[in-house]
Design a protein that fits this description.
Elements lengths: L43 E5 L4 H12 L3 E6 L3 H13 L4 E5 L5 H15 L4 E4 L15 H22 L8 E5 L12 H21 L5 E7 L6 H5 L2 H5 L17 H8 L10 E4 L7
Parallel strand pairs: 1-2, 1-4, 2-3, 4-5, 5-6, 6-7
């Protein structure tokens, strides 16, 4: 078992959405540890928020399992190119798709470009998210609430709808929810609300698509060490990040990737409508 870093962590303020290279300690995305075994051979995947964090780890794992990967991201070009490099080193095709998915046309465009590159979508991972920390409801602007909902849940509706005509029986949809869906943090009010919506969206979608042979599941991460943390949380929260769970540390993106691989693979052929918690021992009730 790998001995991952534990808090306290050094001060490391960043502007949103954050950069991987400025994080201390550096996150583990499975660059040197993930070993593939052909479980996704020949498949085509679209992963949003794939420039860094969970999305990068998923992209690396998918590529090492044999999938081509479309890497959708906002504007973190250096991080996205690094993800693409790892995908290509695995011998798979990487397509970079920058754009703001809070805009409906961007959602449709990234699907179009994925289909142009690969001809289909076998795996859709709706992972990109926006969050901010607030002390009171009065601190929330209308703009912040709308941006969070547009990015985190409305985009899922639009991207999934656009992708469905290009998905065949056996395809898989995986949505990134959060422990906040069931144990919401008041300081992350809009974010937590969208994550609850994602769990319900996924459960409904699984039932709607079952007859078409398309599966839908969600993953609910606990505290995971990604650029979203130092770029959106107060310094003291960052310093102690992950100390609140039984394992007393944040999870690394690499520790989530195998869950996404399982849900994307044919081995999970009877797994749909589920939510898998990856929380460092904190129960989701």
């Amino acid at each position: 078992m790998r001995d991952y870093p534990r808090p306290p962590f050094p001060d490391q303020p960043q502007n949103m959405p954050g950069e991987t290279r400025r994080m201390e300690p550096a996150p583990d995305h499975g660059e040197t540890s993930y070993k593939g075994s052909g479980r996704l051979a020949g498949k085509a995947a679209l992963v949003t928020g794939a420039d860094s964090g969970i999305g990068r780890a998923v992209a690396i794992a998918f590529a090492r399992e044999g999938a081509d990967v479309a890497i959708a991201y906002l504007d973190e070009h250096a991080d996205a190119k690094e993800t693409a490099r790892w995908v290509e080193e695995a011998g798979r095709k990487a397509v970079l798709l920058p754009g703001d998915i809070s805009q409906p046309e961007t959602c449709r465009e990234i699907v179009r470009k994925t289909v142009d590159a690969f001809g289909r979508v076998d795996i859709l991972v709706n992972n990109a998210a926006h969050q901010s920390t607030v002390a009171t409801l009065e601190d929330l602007t209308d703009e912040e609430v709308l941006l969070t909902f547009k990015t985190n849940i409305v985009a899922m509706f639009i991207i999934t709808k656009a992708a469905l005509p290009h998905m065949k029986a056996g395809a898989a949809i995986i949505n990134t929810a959060s422990v906040n869906a069931d144990n919401p943090s008041p300081q992350l009010l809009p974010y937590a609300a969208t994550k609850g919506a994602i769990e319900n969206f996924t459960a409904s979608l699984a039932q709607m698509l079952a007859e078409r042979g398309i599966r839908a599941n969600s993953v609910a991460p606990g505290p995971i060490w990604t650029p979203l943390i130092p770029s959106t949380m107060p310094a003291e929260k960052v310093k102690q990040f992950g100390s609140q769970v039984p394992m007393k540390r944040p999870g690394q993106p690499a520790e989530l990737a195998p869950v996404y691989v399982l849900l994307a693979s044919d081995e999970a052929s009877y797994v749909s409508g589920g939510m898998i918690a990856v929380t460092g021992g904190k129960p989701i009730i």
